[in-house]
Amino acid sequence: MTRSFFKNLFAFTIMISHLTICESQNFPKKNREQRIGQKADSVLRLMTLDEKIGQMNQYNGDWEATGPITNDGDKQNQIRMGMLGSMLNVTGVEHTRELQQMAMKTRLKIPLLFGQDIIHGYRTTFPIPLAEAASWDLDAIELSARIAATEAAAAGVHWTFAPMVDIARDPRWGRIMEGAGEDPYLGSLIAVARVKGFQGKGLGSTDALMACAKHFAAYGAATGGRDYNSVDMSLRMLWETYLPPFRAAEEAGVATFMNSFNDLNGIPATGNAYLQRDILKGRWKFKGFVVSDWGSVGEMIPHGYAKDNYEAAMEAVIAGCDMDMESRSYIKNLSKLVNDGKLSLGSINDAVKRILIKKFEMGLFDDPFRFCNKEREQQQWNNKDNLNAERQIAEKTIVLLRNENQILPLSRQTKTIALIGPFIKSVRDNLGFWSYIWPDDSARIISPWQGIQNKLGKESKLLYARGCNINDSSTSGFAEAVEVAKQADIVIMNVGEAADMSGEAKSRSNIHLPGVQEELIMAIQATGKPVIVMINAGRPLIFNWTADHVAAILYTWWLGTEAGDAMADVIFGDYNPSAKLPVSFPRSEGQIPVYYNHFNTGRPPKNDSDLNYVSAYIDLPNDPKFPFGYGLSYTSFSFSGIDLNKKSFRPGDSLTASITVTNTGKFDGKETVQLYIRDLVGSVVRPVKELKNFQQIFLRAGDSKKISFTITADMLRFYNNKLDYVFEPGDFMIFIGGNSKDVKESSFTLLK
Ligand code: BGC
Q: Could you say which of 293, 324, 565, 679 is catalytic?
């Protein structure tokens, strides 16, 4: 210990006490940024190289794992030695306090950051992100993230590894459940809603989590839909389809980014300088920090991109990855890399400063225990308002795919209802992947059985048969289920995927309804009773026979804690379904990838039966079973023709497209009016349709409303061959409708 150590410590103490007074949100943003930057610099100046490297190191807690665990030594001791900047999977006020106290025993008392995958709720589980995307309701999505952040922040968590903003066009990929579907425009709006929801009033509020846009980039395009797989795509496709939601999250002020497991055009994303340095920190001027994905620094070795961890750590830092999650490559190699002259101190300082800045912004230097408030944790633990909000959001995500003869909604007077299927009495499966297990789950989570029972009076009788298991070949329960169905006036079935059948490392080559569930539906349908099918899943499934035969289908995803009540609200008409698919549903795995915004090709088929040397299958239509944007209501809507206020306009000017929507059915209801545009001729080929805007309107039965969309040249931009973001004068088609397929159309010209 030298004199200069005490001198530094003194300076540090002064600096810390200074912080407590001034980190209020009231200072203008720029000044605040500047001051926090200076503070981070002053801490940085005090730090040894080892302490700096410690900040770039993140370990999993020993309690829960979301990846392959490495148990190598005493993590608590490493905290005490300042070898750790952050931990993941540690929650709870007591737990986080205990570890933070250890961090406070280090020389510089730099607080730890606690990160966690708060993907769709913490204590209250919300519908999975793909389901929420089906609501197209940005306020609801923001609210869901807000509540999740409030609950998690009250339990000591600082940082969520969400939102996942990966575009996914391949339902075999299990992680499609975590994103917003296939469309870059909708995906971008949802990315913003989630970032705003998680970060609330801003970092520094005790109910705000730092958000993390992941996985940068193109992870959703894994070849063959197989998780962690390679991605090879043109840069134009990357910019046009996969990057926009990341850009939107960055512009919305997301605190952090996570890179991804995949290689992109031969370079692992974690070691990809084009992505992290050139695009993110360069072109986009991102000020936050980048965390690796779990072990992804070390995984550059099996990728065949680094010889050993020494090289992997070097490549990752050079590429702009600031924090190493769980691969221990940084902690073991960075010091040597700097001493060997392979990495500059500047690159380490840059990474550490970014991390320190976030710790300052979170107010952790002021009070490292500000998220460890027992009272707040208790308050959020059983918050009824959060459960109510969850139920309302869940209702908005249920997609009505079919409703023959308006069989739904059911009357509460229905005498005998048979409830059949492996999910009718399920509890945990309603939460889906990336959800937390709490000891009182069985009492808290509402099963469909419970929800339907809650809705009905004593006069109604509910019968039950499981019928079959989720994913085996036994039909031994069919006979009982058929008998039960015969005794009922109506049958409600609940089938689908278990919570661990979509999610990370849950890719499936066969995405039909698992096991013998569709055979069970056939057997029940053969009784002649009206059959309503609810399908729970974390991805688009294939169920063609069901889609063509049963009376009604509700796609019920994984709806969260209040699942059963939300289902019952929709079945009995307390909520009129309004959700729209955020992703196309294929007819067969052979069509994948199938998405609405594809190119036309030089030989587009004229119709489904056109096989005359066209771009088509000889055994299947090209289009999906259910298109992007599709979803029915208990009422019906009609659309007038499109009215354009002019046929052409110049850049700088705009055009207004209007359409009158009428509720032609018997129920009040909500419609999502979708605007698509096609650029007919471009310097590069353009998709047959691109979503450009939408509006959700509520119409009473019989009412009409005129909806107007403004179209500007900026909405017509795309990445040309040089990757410039341009619009090109010429002719455009415009489409407006209630889904991407059934639309009214018109055309206009963008003049020079
Ligand atoms: C996932 C990330 C996640 C991380 C930490 C990884 O396996 O890909 O999305 O945030 O684990 O749980």
A: 293
